[in-house]
Write a structure and sequence with these properties.
The complex is a heterodimer of chains A (131) and B (201). Chain A is an alpha+beta fold and 131 residues long. Chain A has helices at 4-17, 48-68, 107-126; strands spanning 25-30, 35-40, 76-79, 84-90, 95-102. In chain B, helix 3 (110-125) links the parallel strand 6 and strand 7 (136-141). Chain B is globular. Classes of the chains: A alpha+beta (131), B alpha/beta (201). Chain A: Pfam families: Robl_LC7.
């Protein structure tokens, strides 16, 4: 269980690295399909509970596929749509960061920002001084 | 493991309906969805095959109100029952907090019930979860078929086959008519909440 300071720091990392870059929705969740933090730009609605369940299922299925082809994991997934796209990235063995963005932002920019956010979140998760 | 968010004061609990194919797991969730429409925030999510059988899982979240200042959301999942989908069943069990084992009371399904329970035990082991420490409720489903002269197993036989060692609460049920669907749900929620209360309070 994460404490309040850790959750605040995770929210801060998502706000500064991802939401500030113009992403539509960001969900930080565990592999069991539970949301830990969710952020949106206030412009569109998303059923984040069902979304997280499907995202966990999707990620787990792809993980199983990786094993079948002899990979230990596929740590990143990307779904491209006409108007919006979804980027999934593993943060650690138990958690996943899902970012949704419009065609106004390039995939390269999202990947860069997601990498920064994941580093920041992992620092929060491993920093025992945050209480 | 239940996700407890101390910042948003939310608890998310994952309950999985497990059992052999065509045993009535999805029907249980459909009945709950219909009965508790007011408390259910979203549409039930079902990933089905073309012939309407569960491909990945059904998903139904609903709020059970506040407990000690925490908003508790119960997330109900089913697994696909068909034998060929074991990898998927294992994936759905990840992070499970409580299980309803839906057995089919038809005599012809006796071996499949036992096989499914054994496989569930093995699948839980892959996550280092011990079935004997897990909140579990048995549901002996389709008792209504007894009225239409379909040969069904007596509850004593099902208890002996499936519950003689586990010794968990068991219900005779009819998911299609709703018989004992809600008592099964209430029981698994109450014993699952009891099992996580040390983490919560």
């Amino acid at each position: 269980m994460l404490n309040q300071s850790q959750l605040d720091a995770i929210d801060h990392a998502i706000e500064t690295h991802l939401m500030a870059a113009g992403l539509d929705h960001v969900i930080y969740m565990d592999m069991g399909g539970n949301t830990i933090a969710k952020h949106d730009n206030g412009k569109s609605r998303l059923d984040s509970t069902a979304f997280a369940a499907l995202a966990a299922g999707n990620f787990a299925a792809v993980d199983a596929m990786a094993k079948l082809v002899g990979e230990s994991e596929f740590s990143l997934l990307f779904h491209k749509g006409e108007r919006s796209s979804i980027h999934f990235s593993k943060v650690n063995n138990d958690t996943l960061l899902v970012s949704m963005f419009s065609k106004d932002i390039s995939l390269g920019m999202v990947r860069l920002k997601v990498t920064e956010a994941i580093k920041a979140i992992n620092r929060v998760l491993t920093d025992t001084t945050i209480v | 493991m239940a996700l407890i968010n101390v910042k948003t004061k939310e608890v998310q609990i994952k309950i999985v309906y497990y059992g052999p194919g065509r045993g009535g797991k999805t029907t249980n969730l459909e009945y709950i969805n219909h009965t508790y429409r007011d408390q259910i925030k979203t549409e039930m999510v079902s990933l089905k095959t073309h012939d309407d059988r569960t491909l990945f899982f059904d998903f139904l979240p609903f709020d059970v109100g506040r407990i000690k200042g925490f908003d508790v959301t119960i997330q109900l999942y089913t697994v696909p029952g068909q034998v060929k989908y074991n990898a998927t069943r294992r994936l759905v069990l990840r992070g499970v907090d409580g299980i309803v084992f839906v057995a089919d009371v038809q005599k012809a399904q006796r071996a499949k019930n036992i096989e499914s329970l054994n496989q569930m035990y093995e699948n839980l082991e892959t996550y280092n979860l011990d079935l004997f420490k897990m909140p579990v409720v048995m549901q002996y489903n389709k008792v209504d078929l007894g009225k239409s002269n379909t040969p069904i197993l007596a509850s004593e036989i099902l208890q002996r086959d499936l519950n003689s060692i586990l010794r968990v609460p068991a219900f005779e049920a009819s998911a299609i008519t709703g018989g004992n669907v809600i008592p099964t749900l209430k029981k698994i929620i109450s014993i699952t909440l009891a099992s996580i209360q040390d983490q919560l309070f």
